[in-house]
Amino acid sequence: MNQNPLLLNDNPEEKVFEYIRYLLENGGPELQDYEKFTSIINAINPEDVDNFRVKIKSVLNENTLIGHGFVKPYGYPGDFTLIDKIYRFDVNQDPKYKNWDIFFQNQPGANAVRNRKNFFIEYCKKLVLRKENAKILILGSGPASDVYEFLSTHTGCNNLTVDLIDFDQSAINFSKEKNKKFDGQISYNKINALRFNSYKLYDLIWSAGLFDYFKDKHFTFLIRKYINCLEEDGEMVISNFSTKNPTKRLMEVLSDWYLNLRTESDLFRIASDANVDKELVSVDKEPLGINLFLKIRKTP
Ligand SMILES: C[S@@+](CC[C@H](N)C(=O)[O-])C[C@H]1O[C@@H](n2cnc3c(N)ncnc32)[C@H](O)[C@@H]1O
After folding, report:
1. pLDDT at position 158, please?
2. Which distant-in-sequence residues (6+ apart) come within 8 Å of 2 by Cβ?
3. Where are the domains of the chain?
4. Statement: the pTM of the whole predicted model exceeds 0.85
5. pLDDT-flagged residues of the chain (< 50)
6. Ligand 1 centroid vs 75 CA: distance in angstroms?
7. What is the helix, strand, coil percentage profile of the chain, to 5?
8. What is the pLDDT of residue 111?
9. pLDDT given for residue 16 in this prediction
10. What's the burial of 288, exposed, middle or buried (CB within 10 Å: 0-12/13-18/19+)?
11. Does domain 110-245+254-297 fall into CATH 3.40.50.150?
12. Strand, coil or helix: 75
């Protein structure tokens, strides 16, 4: 293992690039490097981002999770393969890339994604206890790994039906293959959530990892639209990454992955802009407080 160059050089900029070279030679940051590497990224000015990416270009490719986000093989950063890999804590075992993936998977943002899957599963557990023939609609379903995990671990939910909406045909294909043992219970719909029209009413309308990409006006539009698709005792749950996301700059600088981060009060304001009564709205979060959940009931 090479010696950490932070100890050897005096020029601050050179010191940073020597340190990056050292990380690249070591296959990525190890646990003792996390704090230093993160503080370097957090201190990079917007005008220096491109130059920084050139320095780490040997890992900004599909061999790493950060590179997958950067390359965007499906045209957007959080695609179904990346999200599914986060859920499975997948790590490239090639020593050139392994530590980069372990670093990515250990970031609070990745943990918050895994936590939101657990949040979904807890919701479904309560729902099937309350309603035998529950109907769920998922907007921006991606890999549908959350659905797969719930149905695989909670057998006997044969009357539960799930309608998936995603505008990416590759995501639909992947989720269909993944969930093939639940054929008949799940419908797959390749359509933009902004355009989908439902003739059915749902007990739960769930959306995770989608509204963070929308501007407030689309967020409001979708609440107005989908509240009409809820059963009288139904609920809509929408996740949004918080402004407190500590992984924000890592996502932006390394993966060119930008989200519309929001506060709890942003979410209350958006619900109010969509003309939803205050008493029908609450905001919840997963244990890290990074993924917020706007919850809207149809009736009190
Ligand atoms: C970050 S993934 C989240 C996947 C899944 N909900 C989860 O949390 O595991 C977002 C998904 O939303 C889909 N998506 C993005 N914009 C969409 C839109 N306007 N309508 C439907 N799907 C959309 C993408 O194709 C992608 O599969």
Report:
1. 87
2. 22, 25, 26
3. 5-106, 110-245+254-297
4. yes
5. 1, 5-8
6. 12
7. 50, 15, 35
8. 98
9. 87
10. middle
11. yes
12. coil
